[in-house]
Amino acid sequence: MVPNPDSPASPPGGGRALGPMHLVQSFVNTLSADADLLRTREEAAAWLRTAALLPAEAGLSNSEHAALLRLRESIRDVLAAHVDGREDAAAAARLTRALAEGRLVVTVDPASTVRLASAARASYPGLVAAVAIAIAGSAASGTWLRLKCCPAPDCGQAFYDSAEAGRCSRHGA
Ligand SMILES: [Zn+2]
Question: What is the whole-number distance in angstroms between the Cα of residue 75 and the centre of ligand 1?
Fold first, then answer.
């Protein structure tokens, strides 16, 4: 069975985003009020494998696990700023720094197929690159600014704000 990163379990309380945005949404929503699916290195590696972001034989070092949690937090902060269209320069800079670990490059194959890829061989930069490509893809398709983190207390779930409600479906008006 090949895991499909675009069809994970429906995130609690969130509308469904489409395509690359869904990957970003699922990643952010590994943290909820009840649970953190990335809490330990082992749990994080298991989730990443299920999401097809980590090869079956690969694990995470302590520093990679810490960086993974920082990446998730920086995405969450940027999505929180999307709720009211606020500019958060510090959050944007943290996310830019976290995504730089993916070492994205543009590759061209003999058939002139152009792809975004990671210049690194290791599994961790590869998964950061996959998240970065998903974010770029969602920005290109216009879904990124509508992916938001619910501001309700103890929520913070990432949701696709199709109705400009500013809150997830559980906490909408
Ligand atoms: Zn909510």
Answer: 17
Query: pLDDT tens digits for 22-73?
Result: 999 999 999 998 899 999 999 999 999 999 999 999 999 999 999 999 999 9
Residue corresponding to tokens 């994205």 = 104
Structural domain harbouring 125? 20-160
Residue 84 CA to ligand 1 centre (angstroms)? 15
81 CA distance to ligand 1 middle (Å): 15
Domain presence at residue 12: no
CA of residue 74 to ligand 1 center, whole Å: 18
CA 32 / ligand 1 centre spacing (Å): 10
Q: Is residue 118 part of a domain?
A: yes
Rounded to 5°, the CA angle 101-79-46 comes to 55
Average pLDDT rounded to a whole number, residues 5-26: 61
User: Quick count: other Cβ atoms within 10 Å of Cβ 47?
Assistant: 19
CA distance 44 to 71: 13
CATH number assigned to the domain comprising residue 24: 1.10.3300.10
**Structural domain contains residue 117:** yes
Residue 58 phi, psi dihedral angles, 5° rounding: -90, 150
Whether residue 25 contacts residue 139, with contact meaning beta carbons closer than 8 Å, is answered with: no
